[in-house]
Amino acid sequence: MRNCPHCNQQISIEGIKFCPKCGKSLMQQSLESKLAVKSTCPNCRADLNPGKNFCPKCGQQVSTLSDSAVPETGDVSLKKPPLKVEQNHLTNSVTLSHPESKNKKLTWLIVSAISVLVVIAAVGVWAYSQGYFMDNESPQVTITSPAYDKTLNLTSENRVEEVIEIKATDNRKIKKVILYINDAVVKEFNEGNSYLYKWEADNAGSYNIKADVFDNKGNKATSKTIKINVLNNSSNNSSSNNSSNNPSQTNEITNIKATITSHYMNIPSNLALAHDSFSNKLQQQQPKENWIKSFSSTISDSVDKVNVINVNENEALASFAMTSRDRSDGGKTIVRKWEGQWKLVKENEQWKLDEPQIKMVSENYE
């Protein structure tokens, strides 16, 4: 049997949660009885029972031990923060909560939020570095080999081969490079900076080569178009045979070779005469004064070979190889090997160099 802590009504029914007289909760009494600790009278040191306001021995008024009081026995288990009683008014149930559990939950939420923010930031940095957003700069693409228009002869097996090399760069990330020959897609590359493709042909004709590059944002760039002319070997043989039987044709081939050879032999000893080997068009494109300044460190140029590919009344095409020697800043001599082609035109009955197509094939120091 127990009494209601609010109206002192005696209650004999076990297990009920509310007083049948005043309707107030009986859980507080149960909780206080569980949390109550033994205390002594401050006047006579007599033992006091929980819930008494006066000492039964000396009559001294005393206060009941609070929930947070620590008994003289020194039980450290009672030093924990008091439990908080929470009542659910919908279900009339009572729950006990501890402040530490709420602190742990709050800490977990903060840590989780920080972790999510870190992941989002990392993804954003990666997407930015890959150029998926905030990238308005277009990539760059160049066909580095062949670096100029080129003429090839079909072999006896009626085929030619050429290695096409593409160089592509971007401020962020390249997505793909597409190679075209005569506007038809022949190869698609993914990522990287340098791309190689072995091209083969078995038919004479003109082939236009270009490349497109795309970055992850969709920005695009297109390379300069390079042309490869494939000649039929049988027609070249016929031309050679005709030239051997035609003194006039043989003389033209000799003059073409002499024009190319003398041009390089006059560098740098007679640069003005070397410049005179150019056609009127090329002289306008490369004024003499500016062109001469570009040979300030040149020691010599020499022709290794010249081969006339095709010649008609006013135009000719010849391939050649040459070696240049230049002074370096370190005092050594830079030796470079060059290969290419010259298109020549006839002006005032003389063959003139009109359009160069030259590339460096090697470099070393002496």
β-strand number: 19
Beta fraction of the residues?
A: 35-45%
CATH architecture verdict of the domain at 234-365: Roll
The fold-level CATH name of the domain at 234-365 is Nuclear Transport Factor 2, Chain: A
Helix fraction by DSSP (H/I, runs of at least 4):
10-25%
State the secondary-structure class: alpha+beta
Broad CATH class of the domain at 234-365: Alpha Beta
Profile the largest sheet: 6 strands, mixed
What's the name of the CATH homologous superfamily of the domain at 234-365? NTF2-like, domain 1
Structural summary, described in words:
The protein has 366 residues and is α+β, with helices and mostly antiparallel strands. Among the domains are: 140-231, Immunoglobulin-like, CATH 2.60.40.10; 234-365, NTF2-like, domain 1 (Nuclear Transport Factor 2, Chain: A, Roll), CATH 3.10.450.100. The chain has seven helices and 19 strands. Strands 8, 10, 11, 13, 14 and 15 form a six-stranded mixed β-sheet that branches. A four-stranded antiparallel β-sheet has the order 16-17-18-19. It has a three-stranded antiparallel β-sheet with strand order 7-9-12, with no helix packed on it. β18 and β19 form a beta hairpin. α3 (233-245) crosses α4 (247-265).
Brief synopsis:
The protein is of the alpha+beta class and 366 residues long. 24% of the residues lie in helices and 38% in strands.
Task: Spell out the key features of this protein.
366 residues, 24% helix, Nuclear Transport Factor 2, Chain: A, 7 helices, four-stranded antiparallel sheet, alpha+beta, Immunoglobulin-like, 19 strands
